[in-house]
From TrEMBL:
<feature type="domain" description="Rhodanese">
    <location>
        <begin position="125"/>
        <end position="219"/>
    </location>
</feature>
<comment type="function">
    <text>Catalyzes oxygen-dependent 5-hydroxyuridine (ho5U) modification at position 34 in tRNAs.</text>
</comment>
<dbReference type="Pfam" id="PF17773">
    <property type="entry name" value="UPF0176_N"/>
</dbReference>
<dbReference type="InterPro" id="IPR001763">
    <property type="entry name" value="Rhodanese-like_dom"/>
</dbReference>
<dbReference type="Pfam" id="PF00581">
    <property type="entry name" value="Rhodanese"/>
</dbReference>
<keyword id="KW-0560">Oxidoreductase</keyword>
<protein>
    <recommendedName>
        <fullName>tRNA uridine(34) hydroxylase</fullName>
        <ecNumber>1.14.-.-</ecNumber>
    </recommendedName>
</protein>
<dbReference type="InterPro" id="IPR036873">
    <property type="entry name" value="Rhodanese-like_dom_sf"/>
</dbReference>
<dbReference type="InterPro" id="IPR040503">
    <property type="entry name" value="TRHO_N"/>
</dbReference>
<comment type="similarity">
    <text>Belongs to the TrhO family.</text>
</comment>
<dbReference type="InterPro" id="IPR020936">
    <property type="entry name" value="TrhO"/>
</dbReference>
<keyword id="KW-0819">tRNA processing</keyword>
Amino acid sequence: MSNLPFTVAALYCFARLPQYESLREPLAGLCEENGIKGTLLLAAEGINGTVAGSAEGIRNLVNYITSIPELANPELKYSYASKMPFHRMKVRLKREIVTMGVEGIDPLKSVGTYVAPKDWNALIDDENTIVIDTRNDYEYAIGTFKKAIDPKTKTFREFPQWVEQNRDKLEGKKIAMFCTGGIRCEKATAFVKGLGFEDVFHLKGGILKYLEEIPREESRWEGDCFVFDERVAVGHGLTESDIELCRACRRPIKPEDKLSQYYEEGVSCAACYHERTPEDRARYAERQKQVKLAQLRGGQKHIGS
């Protein structure tokens, strides 16, 4: 438990959920009643999302979700925030709760071996283990495990192609995969096992659970863990980091990145400067001006802030 005012709950559950469409309105209504913001995704394969609110509000939501028989045992992780980390609440209906884009991948039928955080170090320290970060390149850039391979993916849809192209490097090895909260690895390990690999493992509860449970002095984690909300990233003990977002491209920015000649608050950073036109940057500059004016008028946040 923390003395910070907002409880953040990251959860997912793969399940046979044919009635998923009918859950949208009750969940949206419950979140509105309890002042909860964030995103929940519903699909025939289950539920996924991260939300924030008061401790009581989040408790009410979790109690409702776990009262649904198919969702009684979700993977659930709590952390805390000093400010509300989301702008609005969204409950969306999707084809997949985590988009890989490969037909027939079913983590309920076949999945890698779960490895608890306390056992993860021994696995990845093994010289016969290949450690793969299944997250995207901008997430890898601000923090990852020692020895971890970066597939350099822009989206999770690119991950299967990377595996196919690197199958020869994986042969005869233990394959250990990890992601932020565990959900991407459910599909990643199911996909890799479907290719015929047997020694496939993934970190149960993901990086967030590892950072929560493993003391810094014993940790193999280096850097911060990107999270998809206004905290941007967390460190050991799930404490908020000093990393911010570029408001033009939504990539993470370290304090030293602000020293770049291409960085302008709300307008550009070194990663996106050459991806945008002068007209784009002019538009972002006007938006940033409106953000500042809104703050001066009494702290009211502009929607793009």
